[in-house]
Amino acid sequence: MRERRREIDRMFDYRYSQLLYVFAGLIWAGYLDEGLLAGLSQDKRDAIRRDIAFAESR
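RE: above sequence
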């Protein structure tokens, strides 16, 4: 149970400094569609895509 709580806490960490990682994790897990982030700047979307690619390579 404790591990599941930690997983949820990581998935929904709303600190500003962690949001790009949270978005990448939610997209990778299938909970969020990348198209919904169209309002973000291109460099932020690129960073999210790099995080997703990194997660897929693991």
